[in-house]
Amino acid sequence: PNPETLTGSCLLSCTTFNIFAPINKILDQQNQGLRESEFRAFWVARNQRILDWLLYESSAIICLQEFWVGNEEFVNMYLERLGDAGYSAFKLARTNNRGDGLLTAVRRDCFRVLNYRELHFNDFGDRVAQLLHVQLAAPFSQNQKGNVQQEMLIMNTHLLFPHDSSLSIVRLHQVYKILQFVKSYQNENKLNPMPIILCGDWNGSKRGHVYKFLRSQGFVSTYDTAHQYTDADAHKWVSHRNHRGNICGVDFIWLCNPNKSRKPLKTSWCEAVFGILRRQLRKASMAENDAFAFLKGDSHGDFITSSAFFEALHQVNLIGQPSGLGFQETRDLWIQADVDANGVLDYEEFKNRIWISTVSEEKENLNGSREESIRGTEDALGFNVKNAVLYPREAEKGIWPEDYTLSDHARLSVVLSPERMWCSQS
């Protein structure tokens, strides 16, 4: 992309890019063990070209995934070139010595880093996330009056690949942990409302539960917002050709402005899990009555007991395995469903809380919030999405070019315009 599309007066740019770690890049499909990491000249040349592009664009925020933290020369190459170009960079390895991880870099002339935190999911995917709390280095408006908050939160992550449908709950759980982590950080530090940017390889499309969950929490896909795409336009762009040869859109830069009202996090989480349960039951060709009977199990009477409910969740692999839900999360689901708190679910509770999708019945606007923005007394920093581009540009048309060799992912860059926003004090 032309740099003029990514920079400008009072604009901030952000880039996310899965750079395909050399230890993961297979050079010969007939010999799966032959990796780029064994050929120094190959990975050095490719990653120097990646750095050339990143520094040419010079985004204020750079979030990289599959960063080869296990190779000192590779790490130093990035840290030195980014450092010389005026960036502060933070790297984080995946747990259990998986070899790759994350790197987040911010331009020192754009931001002052107030804090840096790391999140280890500690699940069998060994995934991690980074959180940066930053302050704008200069007021975003020369005519700014009043004490407008100049801070924001940036997160970078790489979710588990959905090798099969049983991992949907793991990926949803990873996002839940991210949002809990952000919320806890805000509460611990008594932060005022501020924008949140989530960057990364989400390993899931606009059709998935993760996408819907983030939307329910007030986040918008900046690329879709810039191009005025709706949820029905999932086929219009791609950002990845995976190891199975499928092309899909999985790389996102999510934005949540501080003026967006949203449901309590636990409520949205429970609704998202019920969505996975609903899909599992419908995949088994169960109609509404069949699903109620399945959840009821051997219970006497026309209701679902908690023990029968937990057993049903076990049968559909939502609990009871290393990747399943824990005890407290399972209890949260039950409490969410048992509206009158009488210890059992009658048919109406099952129908309204579990079987009927609350999201599908509510209209969502392009900005991702199902409720009106709240006008309150707090004056805060927010962002408008001005532009977003994918490289290679063919990806914007749903095409993956055969001659593209930088990575198996496209690079996504977005341009944001700071603005003052009214928001509620929570």
From TrEMBL:
Pfam families reported in the protein's UniProt record: Exo_endo_phos
Database matches in PROSITE patterns: EF_HAND_1
Signal found in the keyword field: no
Signal peptide boundaries: none
GO MF, any single term: 3'-5'-RNA exonuclease activity
Keyword flag Calcium: yes
Annotated InterPro entries: CCR4/nocturin_mRNA_transcr, EF-hand-dom_pair, EF_Hand_1_Ca_BS, Endo/exonu/phosph_ase_sf, Endo/exonuclease/phosphatase
Transmembrane segments: none
Entry keyword set: Calcium
Domain Endonuclease/exonuclease/phosphatase stretches: 41-271
Name used for this protein in its record: PREDICTED: calcium-binding
Origin species: Prunus dulcis (Almond)
